[in-house]
Amino acid sequence: MMQTARDIFSYRKFWARRFGVSPELPMTRAEMEALGWDSCDIILVTGDAYVDHPSFGMALIGRLLEAQGFRVGIIAQPDWRSVDDFRRLGRPNLFFGITAGNMDSMVNRYTSDRKIRSDDAYTPDGKGGARPDRSVIVYSQRCREAWRDVPLIIGGIEASLRRIAHYDYWSDKVRRSVLLDARADLLVYGNAERQIVEIAHRLAAGEPVTALRDIRGTAWVCKSLPGGWEIVDSTSVDTPGRVDSPVDPYLDTRAPACATRTQGTQQTVTIDRVARRERTAVRLPAFEDVRADPVLYAHASRILHLETNPGNARALVQRHGDREVWLNPPPIPLTTRELDRVYELPYTRRPHSAYGDRRIPAWEMIRFSVNIMRGCFGGCTFCSITEHEGRIIQSRSQASILREIEIIRDTVPGFTGHISDLGGPTANMYRLACKSREIESVCRRLSCVYPGICKNLDTNHRHLIDLYRKARKIDGIKKIFIASGLRYDLAVESPEYVRELVTHHVGGYLKIAPEHTETGPLSKMMKPGIGTYDRFKEMFDRFSKQAGKEQYLIPYFISAHPGTTDEDMMNLAVWLKRHGFRADQVQNFLPSPMALATAMYHSGRNPLRRVRRDGERVFSARGMRQRRLHKAFLRYHDPDNWPLLRDALRRMGRSDLIGNGKRHLIPAWQPAGTGKHPARDARKGVFATRHAGEPGGRRHHRANRGRRGPGRCK
Asked: Domain for residue 418, yes or no?
């Protein structure tokens, strides 16, 4: 049975509630004094500019803690070169909460080619360089220098994805848990509302931070393991599918033990197994072992992903030298009532007044959008959503969403009647879930939709259709766009939803992400075949015609994902040309920490199945030159890429694709002044179709699904 948790709004409010609600959380001592504060109870440090909007993590956590009665201050984008900025608000009474921001700082600062970005959408005027590399570590060190005795709680996506030993693409090595480098007292992973509220109240009640060892969704460091736990070696449980024998989904585990004995021994044994699992921890291979052995790294990655269901996940422990990193099971998802209240806290929905008229691109992009749900059960191996938010969908109520649309209409400056997005990590998983809560609580599948849609998954989009229709009827609303990632493999299961979407919520173009056309790469991404895209396109075109609208699909593709061969990229390029697509912007796979595709990239093994030393090998494009080739196939129409592609096609024995006819991929002639640098790379002869005995070709992968850029296909 899925466990329950205490309502996050049921705690007795802290005494400082008497100060009331802040117009905006203070960033300076002067603002604190204007509120009548002599100190902050909690100070949040973030790598983003402070925008008081629920899409910005520190604003959401800050307003939630304020609702609990605490005085919360914000230190946004501090100067990390000295300790001065970290003393700006004085010493916090309870703790520092530290995050890199809405994005991993390394993904934010560097491209997939490891080149530093010149811009930062979360910084005033979009300027780059406002945050350090590995921001969580740097900020933690400065906070410790400023106030040595104050507890440090780290969280956000950067800490969440680095909670155990992890492969770091930018240094090309396995790094230890960020807990150790940051010297933090606790790490909060995933969506942090439950954990941070409990931490704040228990510290306020006088408990030392070292006593906070039983909170789900947290990690901590110890010298020796706690007593009363059964430790199981991970190599004994790495089997495909369920690790434990499945619990009878019809068993009433709420019945008292004496009653179960009268119903037979099987039910008693099952209840005992559930209780035993809650006091069992799985020992992952030690940091030193996964650093030295890629096979053990892939194995550890697989185990971590198998232990992510809040209904049956066990604690994990991983040794780092003479210390242990302990991960408690994931937090229990928020209820609809809790999620509604979190999103209806008194946000100003705009940047802090200290920024004046300076523009913050990330806020401009989302200020007219509404988040309706969290989580994703798609399980795409290159995506960070699953590791951070989990697979269980948490949805807001329809009434709460409609109220937020009205608030945007009435209070957000510049609103013209257009809602830019109504979605979340995906556009169309709102209120989709397993048909049985009991089955959901014991499931260990990595994806509910791959290799096919689970028979236990409810794919009916009726709730979303009804939400769209009611949202359109709100006075002053002219148009509601659906802009976030659409799962078209789910959409085709509900033709009425596709009709509703196409008729009312597409602004001429709809972006979707088939990612590739070939089975090899798609199987490593856990994405549906291109045939599903064809089914959706047929529906899209048919309903667009019925609505009397000329509308187009814009497909996104990934290059150099693990498992991609040169032939795969060539076939994708041929498909693009045959369908008349010319990608303006493309992205190479970026291995984000802890993703399954990153484990493939680093280890050369497939963690989607049991990892064996003689098991399936996965080849990845690791060299920059090979990655450029895969990217060049996606931009086959760019003359600068033609010399590179000609050389590669000749090596692959596909000179038949070079010529001046419509059936050819690239021409045999070269425009003057183009192709200089790719030609130079091609002359170096580095693009072999086979490498070290692996299947020919390279694969490309994307990190941070929410970072997808505004590319267009013509």
From this structure: yes
